[in-house]
Amino acid sequence: MLAEVLQVSCKKRIGKDDFIASIRKTLQAHYKDKSVGRFTLMFKALGGTFLLKESKAKQHIMPEFSKVPLNSDEDVENWLRFYDMSPPLIAVGTLVSHDPGLDLRVQHFHSFSHHGEGGHYHNDTQPDIAEYLGYFALGEFIYRLDKPSETHLIGRD
């Protein structure tokens, strides 16, 4: 069985949103509060990979677990260690157009490279030269295991 794949190729970031947030927000604007859909099948998530061909990227590598509670986005930002990493970077992860009430991260991508750099992708840092090529498969279902009884939005980008 052949799977349909969404290919996204772009150059030069013109807005503040990162590559993945741009895709996610475009889907959300089109489909509103519905799960991402096509024809008669309902898709709820995209998973895939992208190549950041040009531009450095702001990424973090998580340090040792914090010994103190992280109670705000500012606490998380101060705890994480951010780096400007060189292209090419290959990233894998998932995104959803919106959280359908399952306490999901709406996007989460990690990268690696053949030159020893990688981490959690946040954004390119050179928008005028940024170039991306991504391939995303459409998921039919989301399975949420161990949904927390209490939650928060701290540290979700």
Automatic annotation (TrEMBL):
Pfam families: DUF1907 (PF08925). InterPro entries: C11orf54_DUF1907. Residues 1-145 form the DUF1907 domain. This is DUF1907 domain-containing protein. It is found in: Nucleus. SUPFAM superfamilies: AF0104/ALDC/Ptd012-like. Its main location: nucleus. The keyword Hydrolase applies. The keyword Nucleus applies. It comes from Timema podura. Coiled coil: none annotated. Keywords: Hydrolase, Metal-binding, Nucleus, Zinc. Monomer.
